[in-house]
Write a structure and sequence with these properties.
The protein is α/β, with parallel strands linked by helices. Helix content is about 30%, strand content about 20%.
Length: about 350
Amino acid sequence: MIQMTPRIRGIVFSYNRAMQLDATLRSFYLHCQDAHLVHLFVLYKADNPLHTRHYQILARDYPQVTFYPEKNFRRDTLKILTTGFFTPFIRLWFECFSYLINTQNIHSSILKHAITRQAQKMQQRIASKKFPSANGSYNFFLVDDNHFIGDFSMSEVIQALESSPDALGFSLRLGKNTSHSYTRDAYQKLPSFLQLGGKVLSYAWADADLSFGYPLEVSSSIYCAQLIAPLVSTLQFHQPNKLEGQMAACSSLFRKTHPRLLCLETSVTFCNPVNMVQHIFANRAGETVNFTVQDLAERFERGERIDMKTLNGFVPNGCHQEVKLNFICNPLLENSSSQEKGKPVLHQGR
């Protein structure tokens, strides 16, 4: 058993998808056996008043979650990852360094080269485990089309990470069942797993196939804060896909110092790509199951929610899989005394 309560900050990235975010949050709290160990933050972007109001409804429905309206994605992300985990001075240093890395106003090629070189040195220092400790704290990444479908314990996750100093992180989306790559529409070879305690597995990610060889990602992995937060401060990004791409590009830095990745025998979450809200990468989405953002917003407005109980025990074949959505009346409001029987609740401000 872990002797002290681990400090875990989870960040969920969301854009115009309150309906899908509700499914992520509700399924997380349904399946995480010790969810009280995690402080979840939602960093959301809304393009119009309707989407904004839907996020406000979720903020009321999930008072244990902190909702952040996006103002500056890079700065907001770094703030969530570091607040309370590092001293104010180190956090200020992260913010200033990140600003320099991302600024478009530096026209001197000499200065740009110097900053880039300093970022590379910092990344090497992070990979060599020479960065100030974040007091045993952890960062947990999610996106708003994550569905949790199996029970798991964050205590078990942290215990496994603490007993495996050569592990880069812990993935909740990988397991012996994830033999298909949705993005490539191809079979992915399972790596050679080592059995740790309980149902936790360890494998060498550097030479692994497809999703198994992609250790730094933002859709269900847990990392030590002293590793991931300073790394993020050295990257150039302005939205989640760019952040993940930059993180993934740094994976090779950790081949020697963190050659292993942890996961469970059977994955407990997957992404259900029934639609797409970004247009930077031409990712697969909604080919066999499609619900537009507008469709889901209208259903949310009527008081409908995705029925996550129908997916309890579902075993996905990969990290991403298109699965049919079923809908019910908002289960968080079923016992509300303010709701008339058989009618959806009219939320404040509606």
